[in-house]
């Protein structure tokens, strides 16, 4: 019997796990996929929004501004890529200038720090590649960009290091009440828990339905993107949003935490929660809107297209509460955008809800004695000085062998990912942890080398190696030599 079971290993489940791991509690996080961060947390814009968008007085406004304020220190503690670059909502003409004014006033009400309205010369001096037709912008210096997968993985790793358990490939198919709490049914067994937290993202309505009829609906909304080569990464220096209007949704142009340029997303209702297709029409729409802002973007440097699905709902706020009429059960359901920006605050907010329904939280002695128990450090060879690199290679020659040339990722870093508290077991899991395969060649060069390292470490034949989800085999069999050769 555990004290708390968390259903869903996206950035929200991870933030709850991270917030709970300082307390003397047994906690398990159950994730249906073969890794964490494979839902909305996998495919989003990675923006730490400032918080001028949500309606004043909403939970979204409060948790966005709070999460934004907590993000820099959290990323420092967890060694997660974060850049406080700020954001601009750019206006073209008097109608959009008025929208910017409204966003400014809303932001002030929400408590967003440092907001200002910038005139045309001001915005062009900040972003020289913007179209000269621009008439002004809303400047939000507290916005930033973060690596969403790494934030989720890092919180899970620290949770595990502090006694928590992450069980992957563990879909909760049924939730049964018992005398002392809950019995969660999984494909390969059961977990008994005193308290349950539902952070199942797009499936939070279905998981809720296992305990009571849901009073909200998930309305999946797809967002498609272009991911451009790093050569385009310097095209803009801040997050640029086009101005939203009544009949058109804006798009954004920004550098990613890894230095690529990302352009998107669309906003399309899709009936299927797994429909992550990209379409010619969707991409054309983004391209047109982005070129209106920055006409020099070289879309021929596109290296990948992808899409993610937002867990939008029929409510205009996050749904975070102890579920009425259901004992010992809290949910953070339908966490749409700005869920990523709000995540550092949502974890703590959920713990407060658990306390309200009786969970006792006493800080662990190990955390009191060692505050750095809640921190993490990783090797990032491509961010080191030559002196640091030289010392590292002397300590372990595996850091002297570069496997991913595009991102300069070493064998040592790949091995770190495989041997980490939440071990990478697939090629894409290595990519999410190290960035190997994220660059221009998209794994063409490093893929076989990483597959060989994985096969060796996991002691499995290369033919059992998968790229991502179960069944995504890479090799069918040997072309020459022994059965284990690739
Ligand atoms: C296109 C797009 C752009 C976005 N851009 C931004 C942005 O720039 N900034 C921002 O702040 N927010 C953004 N968001 C929103 C942000 O990505 C989400 O709010 C956040 O990732 C939600 O995290 P989550 O943990 O609730 O959901 P998810 O990441 O979807 O995690 C839910 C997890 O639950 C698991 N699960 C489901 N059912 C079960 C079950 N029965 N048993 C076990 N596990 C289960 C799933 O496999 C999944 O891993 C964007 C979202 C999208 C889609």
List the helices and strands and how they pair.
Blueprint: E1 2-7, H1 11-20, E2 27-30, E3 47-48, H2 59-78, E4 82-83, E5 87-91, H3 94-110, E6 116-119, H4 120-126, E7 136-140, E8 144-146, H5 148-161, E9 165-167, E10 174-178, E11 181-186, E12 189-198, H6 204-209, E13 218-228, E14 239-242, E15 252-255, E16 261-264, E17 268-269, H7 280-293, E18 302-313, E19 319-322, E20 329-333, H8 339-356, H9 365-369, H10 386-395, E21 402-404, E22 409-410, H11 411-418, H12 427-434, H13 447-458
Parallel strand pairs: 1-2, 1-12, 2-9, 5-14, 12-20
Antiparallel strand pairs: 3-8, 4-8, 5-7, 6-7, 10-11, 11-12, 13-16, 13-17, 13-18, 14-15, 15-16, 19-20, 21-22
Bound molecules: flavin-adenine dinucleotide.
Flavin-adenine dinucleotide binds at residues 7-13, 30-33, 38-41, 44-47, 49, 171-172, 199-203, 207, 223, 265, 308-310, 335-341.
Key terms for this structure?
D-Amino Acid Oxidase, Chain A, domain 2; binds flavin-adenine dinucleotide; globular; 486 residues; FAD/NAD(P)-binding domain; 22 strands; 8-stranded mixed sheet; 9-stranded mixed sheet; alpha+beta
Quick structural gist:
31% of the residues lie in helices and 22% in strands. It is of the alpha+beta class and 486 residues long.
Can you characterise this structure?
- The structure is a single chain.
- With 486 residues, the chain is of the alpha+beta class.
- The chain has three domains: 2-41 and 148-216 and 316-368, 3-Layer(bba) Sandwich (FAD/NAD(P)-binding domain); 81-145 and 218-310, D-Amino Acid Oxidase, Chain A, domain 2; 381-464.
- Helices cover 31% and strands 22% of the residues.
- The protein is built from 13 helices and 22 strands.
- The strands form four sheets. Strands 5, 6, 7, 13, 14, 15, 16, 17 and 18 form a nine-stranded mixed β-sheet that branches. Strands 1, 2, 9, 10, 11, 12, 19 and 20 form an eight-stranded mixed β-sheet that branches.
- Strand 15 (252-255) and strand 16 (261-264) form a beta hairpin.
- Helix 1 crosses helix 8 (339-356), helix 2 crosses helix 8 and helix 11 crosses helix 13 (447-458).
- The longest helix has 20 residues, at 59-78.
- The chain starts with a strand and ends in a 28-residue tail after the last helix.
- Bound molecules: flavin-adenine dinucleotide.
């Amino acid at each position: 019997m555990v004290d708390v079971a968390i259903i869903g290993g996206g950035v929200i489940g991870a933030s709850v796990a991270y917030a709970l791991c300082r307390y003397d509690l047994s906690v398990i996080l159950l994730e249906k996929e073969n890794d964490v961060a494979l839902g909305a947390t996998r495919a989003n814009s990675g923006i730490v929004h400032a918080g001028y968008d949500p309606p004043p007085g909403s939970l979204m406004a409060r948790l966005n501004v709070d999460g934004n304020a907590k993000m820099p220190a959290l990323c420092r503690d967890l060694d997660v890529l974060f850049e406080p670059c700020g954001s601009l909502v750019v206006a073209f003409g008097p109608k959009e200038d008025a929208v910017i004014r409204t966003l400014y006033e809303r932001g002030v009400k929400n408590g967003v720090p440092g907001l200002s309205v910038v005139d045309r010369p001001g915005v062009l001096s900040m972003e020289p590649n913007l179209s000269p037709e621009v008439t002004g912008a809303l400047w939000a210096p507290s916005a930033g960009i973060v690596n969403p997968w790494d934030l989720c993985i890092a919180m899970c790793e620290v949770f595990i290091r502090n006694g928590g358990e992450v069980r992957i490939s563990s879909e909760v198919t049924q939730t049964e009440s018992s005398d002392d709490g809950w019995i969660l049914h999984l494909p390969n067994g059961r977990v008994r828990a005193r308290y349950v937290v539902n952070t199942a993202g797009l499936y939070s309505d279905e998981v809720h339905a296992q305990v009571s009829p849901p009073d909200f609906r998930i309305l999946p909304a797809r967002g498609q993107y272009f991911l451009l080569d790093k050569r385009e990464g310097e095209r803009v220096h801040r997050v640029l949003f086009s101005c939203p209007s009544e009949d058109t949704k804006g798009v954004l142009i920004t550098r990613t935490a890894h230095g690529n340029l990302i352009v998107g997303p669309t906003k399309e209702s899709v009936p299927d929660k797994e429909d992550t297709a990209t379409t010619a029409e969707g991409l054309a729409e983004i391209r047109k809107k982005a070129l209106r802002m920055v006409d020099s973007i070289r879309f021929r440097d596109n290296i990948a297209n992808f899409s993610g699905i937002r867990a939008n709902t029929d409510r205009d706020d996050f749904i975070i509460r102890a579920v009425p009429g259901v004992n010992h059960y809290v949910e953070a359901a339908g966490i749409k955008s700005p869920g990523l920006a709000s995540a550092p605050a949502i974890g703590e907010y959920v713990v407060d809800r658990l306390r309200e329904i009786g969970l006792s939280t006493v800080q662990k002695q190990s955390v009191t004695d060692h505050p750095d128990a809640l921190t993490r450090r990783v090797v990032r060879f491509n961010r080191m000085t030559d002196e640091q690199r030289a010392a590292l290679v002397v300590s372990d020659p595996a850091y002297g062998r570069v496997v991913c040339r595009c991102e300069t990722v070493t064998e040592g870093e790949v091995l770190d990912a495989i041997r980490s508290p939440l071990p990478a077991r697939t090629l894409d899991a290595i990519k999410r942890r190290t960035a190997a395969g994220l660059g221009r060649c998209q794994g063409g060069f490093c893929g076989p080398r990483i597959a060989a390292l994985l096969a060796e470490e996991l002691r499995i034949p290369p033919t059992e190696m998968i790229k991502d989800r179960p069944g995504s085999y890479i090799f069918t069999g040997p072309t020459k030599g022994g059965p284990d050769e690739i």
